[in-house]
Amino acid sequence: MTIKTDIIIAGGGFAGLACAKALAQAGIGVTLLERKKEAGVGMHTTGIIVGECAEEFALPAHLTRKVTDVRLYAPSLRHIHLKSPNYFFLTTDTPALMRHLSDEAVKAGAVIHYDTAYEKGEKQGGQLAVNGKFSCRFLIGADGPRSKVADDFALGRNTKFLLGAEAEYAGLQLDDTNAFYCFLDQKLAFGYLGWVIPGVAVTQVGLAQRMPARPDIDAFVARMKDCFDFSKAGVVARRGGLIPVGGLVRPFANENVILLGDSAGIVSPLTAGGIHTALHYGQMLGQLLAQHLKQQGPHPADVLARTYPRFYLKQTLRFGYERFAPNWLLNAVLTNPLFTCAAGTVFFKKKRLR
Ligand SMILES: Cc1cc2nc3c(=O)[nH]c(=O)nc-3n(C[C@H](O)[C@H](O)[C@H](O)COP(=O)(O)OP(=O)(O)OC[C@H]3O[C@@H](n4cnc5c(N)ncnc54)[C@H](O)[C@@H]3O)c2cc1C
User: Fold this and answer.
1) Which of 262, 270, 351 to mutate to test the pocket of ligand 1 (most atoms within 8 A of CB)?
2) Which architecture, in CATH terms, is 67-89+160-245+314-348?
3) What pLDDT does 278 receive?
4) Would you list the domain boundaries of the chain?
5) For the structural domain made of 3-47+93-158+246-313, what CATH number should be given?
6) From the centroid of its chain, how far is CA 106?
7) In whole angstroms, what is the distance from residue 320 CA to residue 336 CA?
8) Quick check: helix, strand or coil at residue 170?
9) Mean pLDDT of successive 10-residue segments in the chain (354 residues)?
10) What is the pLDDT of residue 3?
11) DSSP letter at 114?
């Protein structure tokens, strides 16, 4: 028997859950398919939420921890301290946050099937058939950086990636528990950086490299032994995954399939942050779809074509950082006022999403 619904969302990450909640709140029938067994398992993200995201979305305080300062290290391990009176980051208990977002979507009326992958979608008249079992008017691809929905409907695909790896440590003491420690090193973390940050109950230690280079977390931890005492610390969890950094994919939609979040490539190519855009545009797409289905609004893809971020400047900066910033130069410029000012802008400038 075919199950009919207005919208099917493939993927229950930040983007899919925000979209499902907004649709359900507007009274639209929405079914979300997530291949993981339950919410919050198998996380890949560090889960740092930028200040402007925390201002836009009310997140439960007990699942977050505020971090206000940045210690930026050159490859030589010399560092500068950056601070902004008006800015903060939140580290999160990400598995618990995902369970919270999932509960919120279900409370609003969304139907979520865990342990159910999106496998196949095809057009059937004016409708879409999904997995040979569901029928819907719109399909949303929120299934991450390597989207199966994008493949099935010949939409744009991500082609440039960072690969991130992270270990969560218990018992790792930091001399500044208010700081996001960031390590520039083009040998260990080509095209990005390494990080150590106090999480909600653990310390998160990780790095990412521009693919095809792969992150070596053991080599990073060995390098960090000059900065932190790992002797009483133990790894309690590991995570990692792909981060698309090539910008918005094209096309990101057709008449009844729309890509969202990492599937659409709406991740900052510079900071590799994608949680805020996933939540913001997930909610926005839910609201736009609801208006459209009630015949009160334009096609959501037309609106997203004007509002999805393009990241032209950030892609240029990434290009420059990958090609023209070897370790000797990073060591030389660390304390230069221009560099300090630029670094402060990257970390602390509020990015308003349309
Ligand atoms: C190591 C690492 C660290 C990061 N750190 C940060 C950070 O600190 N701050 C930040 O802002 N961003 C960070 N990012 C990026 C951020 O995690 C992503 O941009 C964000 O998770 C995007 O949300 P999303 O919902 O689009 O995709 P995802 O969170 O990837 O969710 C996609 C979901 O789809 C599911 N799925 C995939 N295929 C299928 C299928 N066929 N059927 C059903 N379900 C499917 C997956 O299981 C997953 O649950 C990091 C990424 C990585 C890899």
Assistant:
1) 262
2) 2-Layer Sandwich (3.30)
3) 98
4) 3-47+93-158+246-313, 67-89+160-245+314-348
5) 3.50.50.60
6) 22
7) 18
8) strand
9) 95 98 98 98 97 94 97 97 94 98 98 98 94 97 98 98 98 95 98 97 97 97 94 96 98 97 97 98 98 95 97 95 97 97 93 86
10) 94
11) T
The protein residue with its alpha carbon nearest to ligand 1, atom 53, reads 241
pLDDT of residue 279: 98
- 85 exposure class (CB count in 10 Å sphere: 0-12, 13-18, 19+): exposed
| Amino acid present at 175 | D
Residue 123 in 3-state DSSP? strand
Give the count of beta carbons closer than 10 Å to the beta carbon of residue 95: 18
Q: What is the pLDDT of residue 67?
A: 97
∠ CA 221-73-44 to the nearest 5 degrees? 50
Pocket test for ligand 1, best of 48, 130, 160, 275 (most atoms within 8 A of CB): 275
Q: How far is the CA of 262 from the centre of ligand 1 (A)?
A: 7
Sheet with 194-198: strands ordered across: 79-83, 69-73, 179-183, 194-198, 203-210, 161-170, 234-244
Q: What pTM, to 2 d.p., does this model score? A: 0.98
The three state secondary structure string of 319-342 is HHHHHHCCHHHHHHHCCCHHHHHH
Task: Enumerate the β-bridge partners of residue 121.
Answer: 130
CA dihedral sign, ordered 140, 142, 144, 145 = positive
User: In this structure, are residues 348 and 93 in contact, taking their beta carbons and an 8 Å threshold?
Assistant: no
